[in-house]
Amino acid sequence: MPLRLEIVTPEAKTFSEDVDQVVLPGVEGEFGVLPGHEMLFTQITPGELVVIQKDGKHYLAVGEGFVEVGPNHVSVLTDMAIKADDINEVDAENARKRAEEALSQKMTSEESASVQAALQRSLAQLHVKRRRHS
């Protein structure tokens, strides 16, 4: 029985294919999903999402979001999903530096939360890109 993975960001549906397994960055650590998995709704954190298909593994940097798991589907709603090959390491490093500089400035708690989220997204991209040397 195939497992249908759909990843949706505010911009577009970035992935929609049958897969053999998915590994997600959950709030309590990584967790894998295989066909026949129990129903689950949980939060994901910025990090690496691994797609396992017959042709190999594919890696994406994802941001914060939610995942709904059923016996034959995984639906991911996230603020970012970028394939490892599409990550621009220089841009991600520059975003990280800008966020870290901004955090040293006085700002409201809302501004701080927004900058923290941007920092986490850039760190997730750097982690995936550097780990995979794509």
Keywords:
single chain; 134 residues; alpha+beta; ATP Synthase, domain 1; 2 domains; five-stranded mixed sheet; five-stranded antiparallel sheet; 2 helices; 10 strands; 43% strand
Task: Characterise this structure.
- This protein has 134 residues and is α+β, with helices and mostly antiparallel strands.
- The chain folds into two domains: 82 residues, ATP Synthase, domain 1, CATH 2.60.15.10; 46 residues.
- Helix content is 29%, strand content 43%.
- It contains two helices and ten strands.
- The strands form two sheets. It has a five-stranded mixed beta sheet, with no helix packed on it. A five-stranded antiparallel beta sheet has the order 4-3-6-7-10, with helices on one face.
- Strand 8 and strand 9 form a beta hairpin.
- The mean pLDDT is 91.
Question: Helical proportion?
Answer: 25-40%
Question: In sequence order, what are the helices and strands, one letter per element?
Answer: EEEEEEEEEEHH
- Domains, number: 2
Distance between the termini: 31 Å
Beta percentage is 35-45%
Rounded mean pLDDT is: 91
pLDDT < 50 runs, ≥5 residues: none
- Order of the strands making up the biggest sheet: 2-1-9-8-5
- Structural class assignment: alpha+beta
In the CATH scheme, the class of the largest domain would be Mainly Beta
**Name of the CATH architecture of the largest domain:** Sandwich
Radius of gyration based on Cα positions: 15 Å
Main sheet characteristics: 5 strands, mixed
